[in-house]
Structure formats: structure tokens, C-alpha cells
Design brief:
Number of strands: 0
Radius of gyration: 19 Å
Oligomer: single chain
Structural class: mainly alpha
Shape: globular
Subcellular location: Membrane
Membrane topology: Multi-pass membrane protein
Helix content: over 70%
Strand content: under 5%
Keywords: Membrane, Transmembrane, Transmembrane helix
Number of helices: 13
Largest sheet: none
Protein name: Multidrug DMT transporter permease
Pfam families: EamA
Number of domains: 1
């Protein structure tokens, strides 16, 4: 992997790991709906500006509403669920649980989309679920009904991400040549559409005292929407074009490391053996499920002349 691509991969992991830090700062102050809506709105605006600068045509081949509907799963619901979890769980917890997305993909793909499920993948899924149990039982946050619901919210978000991947391929990628960057923008618009009614209701029923919102919350929201969403998508698609989708998946292994690091450095979250045990099991599970390291190893191995 070229050095520039490696640096971009690390930056992408740092940004997506940092999203859980920003959520932990913003969600307890702004609330679940406002945080999620603000993220998709800023993400959509940032991507719109970028697409205009790059002169990427917003052509959806008559499938805009399909893209927007899938955006409910790629942006709206996951951002809402992670915002809810951020009111209870440390940033490190959510970032580690986010790594369950490929494992959920195995379950969903095998159950609903006819994907081949090998014994190795099944073992990986159970190992990953075991990692969730270990993290919940041994982490620095006491396990009770509230934290259990927050963990469940994170896992439901990974289900949304995994399901959206299959639906995007079946309903969008296989039905035309819509630019992936336009799909990214459309997904954020879909998130805005689905969350807007809830945002309007909350603004009416429980208006927020905006004058009491501190500067760190505003900075966190800007970071969440513009850096961790808009700019992260730019890096993501740049990496796919440079090193391929499979190699870009290695970011999944790096996000929890940055999630734990940022939580420890900036929020003074207490490190725990549970992070190493639970997170380690989930990382081993990913090694079983994702073929990326095996293929990378074969591509880098010496070849006979």
C-alpha cells in the first residue's frame, strides 16, 4: 500500500473513531434527535459543496427515492441509535461495538440474501458476540438495564449498516451507474428527510435553550457533520479508487483503536481490561469473517520468476 494511501486510511479511521467522541460530547447536551439530525444535515451540506467543487453530476437515474430510502439505514437510524447510546456509554464502548458491522453482515447476508456462510464465518460471528458479552460484563461501566439498552442500540445500528450494504448493491449498484459520491449525498438527504419530522416535533414539544449550549458542543457538531461525515466520505471513496474496496475494509480494525484513544485522551475515560478482552475477541472475529488480510498477504507474497 502506498504511503499516502496508508496515511489516508489512518486519517479515515481517526475521523470515524472520533465520531464517537463528538457524539459523547454533543448528545447528552443537545439530545438524541437534535444530534442525529444535525449530523446528517451538516453532512449533506458539506457533501453538496464538495460535489459542486468537484463538478460531480447529481444524476440518480430515476432512483433518487430508492437512494434516499436506503439512506434511512445508512445515516438516519444508525446516527439516531448511536446518539442514544452516547448518552450512556463511553466513546470507547460504541467504537468497539461498531466493529460488529461485518459480523452482522454475515448473519443478514446468509439469512436473507443467499450469501455463502462458511463454518469459519459462523465461528467469527459467535466469537464477536462473545466479545460483546465480555465487554459488557468486564468494562468500566456497570451493566444494568440502561447500559444494556445502549449496547443493544449500538448493535441495532450495526444491523442497519450491514443491511444497507446489501440493499445498496441490489437496488442501486446493480441497476445502473450512479456515482458513489452522489449515492453518499443522497443517503444523507434521506437521513435528513426521515429525521426532520422528529426534529420539528422536538422543537415544538421540548425546545432547546440554545443560548446555554457551550462552544465545545458546537465544535463537536461541526466535527461530527463536516469532518466525520462529509470529509470522511471524501477520504473513503478516494481510498476505494486508490487501493480498492477490500483493502479499504481494513479501516474496520482501526476505528476502535482511535475510539478508545480519543476517549482516553480527551474525555479522560478510564481504560479497562474489558476493552482489551472484548475488543480483542471482536477483532479476531473480524479476521475470520473479512478475507482482506488473506488476500493482501497473497498479493504481497514473493512470486516465482
Amino acid at each position: 500500500m502506498p504511503l499516502n494511501s496508508l496515511l489516508r486510511l489512518l486519517l479515515l479511521a481517526a475521523l470515524w473513531g472520533g465520531s464517537f467522541l463528538f457524539l459523547r460530547i454533543s448528545a447528552p447536551v443537545l439530545g438524541i434527535v437534535t444530534t442525529a439530525f444535525g449530523r446528517v444535515m451538516l453532512g449533506a451540506l458539506g457533501l453538496l459543496v464538495w460535489l459542486a467543487i468537484m463538478r460531480v453530476p447529481l444524476r440518480f437515474s430515476g432512483r433518487f427515492w430508492v437512494v434516499a430510502a436506503i439512506g434511512t439505514l445508512t445515516s438516519g437510524l444508525p446516527f439516531l441509535l448511536y446518539s442514544a447510546a452516547a448518552q450512556v456509554l463511553p466513546a470507547a464502548y460504541s467504537s468497539i461495538l461498531n466493529a460488529m458491522t461485518p459480523l452482522m453482515g454475515v448473519l443478514i447476508g446468509g439469512t436473507f440474501f443467499g450469501e455463502q456462510v462458511t463454518p469459519k464465518k459462523v465461528l467469527g460471528v459467535f466469537m464477536g458476540l462473545g466479545g460483546v458479552v465480555v465487554l459488557s460484563e468486564t468494562g468500566p461501566v456497570a451493566l444494568n438495564a440502561t447500559t444494556a439498552l445502549a449496547v443493544a442500540a449500538c448493535l441495532m445500528a450495526t444491523v442497519c449498516y450491514a443491511l444497507s450494504g446489501f440493499l445498496t448493491k441490489r437496488l442501486i449498484s446493480d441497476h445502473g451507474t450512479i456515482d458513489n459520491r452522489a449515492v453518499a449525498f443522497g443517503s444523507q438527504v434521506g437521513g435528513v428527510i426521515v429525521l426532520a419530522p422528529f426534529m420539528l416535533w422536538q422543537s415544538y414539544a421540548a425546545p432547546l435553550a440554545w443560548s446555554q449550549v457551550g462552544a465545545e458542543v458546537w465544535v463537536s457538531m461541526l466535527g461530527l457533520g463536516l469532518l466525520c461525515t462529509s470529509f470522511a466520505y471524501i477520504l473513503f471513496f478516494r481510498l476505494i479508487s486508490e487501493i480498492g474496496a477490500l483493502s479499504t475494509l481494513t479501516v474496520t480494525f482501526l476505528i476502535p483503536l482511535f475510539g478508545v484513544l480519543w476517549g482516553w485522551l480527551l474525555l479522560h475515560e478510564r481504560l479497562s481490561l474489558g476493552y482489551a478482552l472484548g475488543g480483542g475477541l471482536i477483532m479476531l472475529a473480524l479476521l475470520l469473517v473479512l478475507p482482506v488480510f488473506g488476500r493482501l498477504g497473497r498479493s504481497l507474497a514473493p512470486r516465482p520468476d
